[in-house]
Design a protein that fits this description.
By secondary structure, the protein is α/β, with parallel strands linked by helices. The chain has one domain: Aldolase class I (TIM Barrel). Helices cover 34% and strands 19% of the residues. Helix 5 links the parallel strand 6 and strand 7. The longest helix is centred in the last third of the chain and has 15 residues. The radius of gyration is 16 Å and the shape is globular. 44% of the residues are buried. The structure holds D-xylitol-5-phosphate and zinc ion (ZN). D-xylitol-5-phosphate (DX5) binds next to strand 2, strand 8 and helix 7.
């Protein structure tokens, strides 16, 4: 089955977001991936809700919101209000992950849990039946354009097996360092969704890169 492709807006031209969002609208991309950073959970600050609202109005693709922030449960209603379909929270940022996942679902969004490179997939065993998707980071979160951590491929393979064992329906998304080479190996290992920032926006023809990723 073809992978779901979610370009990450983080690598877009913030001086002309409308142009890049329209490029994604017209491309074969399935979702639009949006990265929110707070300068606390990760050592960078991206954009907040005023920008997100504008982006959401322009996008015709489902919104996959990745919160790299502490206490993400405080913002469930704001994320819902912009029209997000999927809300990703970090395993490492939630003391009461089960409750947060239920709250996201009750708010009418699909809950997803993200793990950092140092978090083993086994930590997700008990939450797997409750989530729509697991996001496996291929880099330490905070910046676009970083080098892919090779061990991620093995983690995707392990997670795929754990999902099978627990009879969960969770999808596997990978974010960070995805390009045609890593993307191919991640799909072979069991990834359902590929997020790509730098690979798409630094390509000479971004829509062709989206097409190539979609064809993996
Ligand atoms: C990184 C973000 C990613 C980022 C990926 O912390 O979560 O979504 O945009 O960028 P690339 O694809 O350039 O590694
Ligand atoms: Zn992301």
């Amino acid at each position: 089955m073809k992978p779901i492709i979610a370009p990450s807006l983080l690598s877009a031209d913030f001086g002309n977001l409308e142009k890049d969002i329209e490029m994604i609208n017209q491309s074969e991309a399935d979702w639009l991936h949006l990265d929110i950073m707070d300068g606390v959970f990760v050592p960078n600050i991206s954009f907040g809700f005023p920008v997100l609202k504008h982006v959401a109005r322009l996008s015709r693709k489902p919104l996959d919101v990745h919160l790299m922030i502490v206490n993400p449960e405080k913002f469930i209603s704001e994320v819902k209000a912009i029209g997000a379909d999927i809300m990703n929270v970090h395993y490492e940022a939630c003391a009461h992950l089960h409750r947060v996942v239920q709250q996201i679902r009750e708010a009418g969004m699909k809950p997803a849990v993200t793990i950092n490179p140092a978090t083993p997939v086994l930590m997700l065993k008990d939450i797997l039946p409750e989530v729509y998707m697991v996001l496996v980071m291929g880099v330490n979160p905070g910046f676009g354009g970083q080098k892919f951590i090779e061990h991620t491929v093995e983690k995707v393979r392990e997670l795929h097996e754990l999902i099978r064992q627990t009879q969960s329906n969770a999808l596997i998304e990978v974010d960070g360092g995805v390009n045609l080479d890593t993307g191919k190996r991640l799909v072979e290992a069991g990834a359902d969704i590929l997020v790509a920032g730098n690979a798409v926006f630094s390509a000479s023809v971004p829509q062709e890169m989206i097409h190539a990723l979609k064809s993996l």
